[in-house]
Amino acid sequence: MKPNDRSERLLALLLIEQMKGSRQRDRVAKLNLAGFSNVEIADILQITSAQVARELYDARQAPAKKKAAKKKTAGPASPQG
Fold it and tell me: What is the DSSP string of 14-77?
């Protein structure tokens, strides 16, 4: 095991420990932001790289879906006067 590999594993373990109880999508996103590849994240979380890719896709789509849902429920603005 290379020293860099050990550091990366330690970082991953610390991130996961901090995120206990959080959703898998959040753990995947945090590890991705920390610079881990989909394959590395899959190995760390013991899931498939396809699941990692799906979680990242869904995480990126979530803000747009929330915005669209707010527009639907907002309705027309009331006239002032």
Answer: HHHHHTTTS-HHHHHHHHHHTT--HHHHHHHHTS-HHHHHHHHHHHHHHHHHHHHHHHHHH-PP
Q: What is the dihedral of CA 33, 22, 8, 48, to 10 degrees?
A: -90
What pTM does this model have? 0.67
Q: How many residues does the chain have?
A: 81
Domain ranges within the chain, ordered by starting residue: 3-62
Joined together, the tokens standing for residue 17 give 């420990």
Residue with tokens 């707010």: 70
At 9-41, the pLDDT tens digits run: 888 888 888 888 889 999 999 899 888 999 999
